[in-house]
Amino acid sequence: MIISPQQLRKLDAFWVGFLIGLIAPVIVFFAYYKLNYDFIQFNSFVADAFMKSVFAPLLSLCVIINLGLFYLFYWKYLNYAARGVIGATFVYAFIVFIIKIFF
To answer: What are the boundaries of each domain within the chain?
Structure first.
């Protein structure tokens, strides 16, 4: 299916990039869990990651997908959506910062 330039311009909004930038790392985190630790429950996996102090680094690695999304939006000249992805990345950076400081 080919997307027309008019349809592509509808995606050029800050909130679209922000929403995609927030959802993509969660999908990557869940995929990592399913591929590597499917034999334990999800809440046990997250609790174990917190106890071993690997939750923040793991979350940081999951956010790398936003780099690819940013370049994809930037390459397609969807600058506002690219800004939204950067905004979502800053939200994740703040979350990782809070986890590192308080946990």
So the answer is: 12-102
